[in-house]
Amino acid sequence: MPGIVRRRIGALLVAVSVLAAAASAVGAEMQALRPLVRAGEKAPGFSLQDIDGKEVSFRPGNGKATLVVFWSVFCPTCKEMVPEIDGYGTRRGASLRTVGVNLDGKRFSNAVRSFLKETGLRMPVGLDDLRNDFFIASDPYGVEKTPTAVLVDGAGVVRGAWAADRIRDFLANADAIVAGLKKGDPPRK
After folding, report:
1. 36 and 141 in contact (C-beta within 8 Å)?
2. 44-to-16, 58, 142, 149 alpha-carbon distances in Å
3. Which of 30, 41, 115, 32 is closest to 80 using CA atoms?
4. What is the phi-psi region of residue 54: left when phi exceeds 0, alpha when psi lies from -120 to 50, beta otherwise?
5. Cβ-count burial of 39 within 10 angstroms (0-12 exposed, 13-18 middle, 19+ buried)?
């Protein structure tokens, strides 16, 4: 009898150890996840590759206001809104840089290529990719929905973030919001 009890206790201790290790790993992963960036925070930089393997990077604080747009070819709202955002960035010219981050990754690069060709997007588009089990660009920004747009001023400070249908709010007020960057208006919360 004592041998059976010892084996059961040993098996129970192994099971508890495995569960504790799993809980610790999940806790660390959950800690790395974050909510969508907020106005007033420093914007994370990133470097990705486009569908042809060329570098697409964003370096906050380079003196240029930038609109970072996270999107997917499988998102119906993105298919409508991303060309509008790209058009807005084109109309703003040198006063605003627009950078696209596609969340579909390299395995869907053919679908991304087709969308880019079909829409004629002018903004550079990088493919978000995994590094150490986290997405290089979208995870530090806390992106959970597509499309998501984040406006960063020339000092590298987030001035506003809009997810999904709230991007329409941004586009409706974009000129005033971007003009506020020049005047030094406080970030929108």
Report:
1. yes
2. 38, 8, 11, 14
3. 115
4. beta
5. middle
pTM for the structure as a whole: 0.78
Annotate 85-142 with DSSP letters as a single string: HHHHHHHHGGG-EEEEEETT-GGGHHHHHHHHHHHT--S-EEEP-EETTEETTHHHHT
> 């588009």: which residue's tokens?
125
The structure tokens 């059976």 sit at 4
At 93, which amino acid appears? G
Give me the amino acid identity at 14: V
Computed on alpha carbons and rounded to an integer, the radius of gyration of the chain in Å comes to: 21
CB neighbour list of residue 15: distance below 8 Å, 6 or more residues apart: none
| DSSP run (H or E) holding 73 | none
Q: Which pair of structure tokens corresponds to residue 157?
A: 């400070």
Instruction: Name the pLDDT band for 184 (thresholds 50, 70, 90).
Output: low
CB 75 within 8 A of CB 101: no
pLDDT (average), residues 55-61: 96
Q: Are 125 and 119 in contact (CB under 8 A)?
A: no
119-140 pLDDT per residue, tens:
999 999 999 998 998 999 999 9
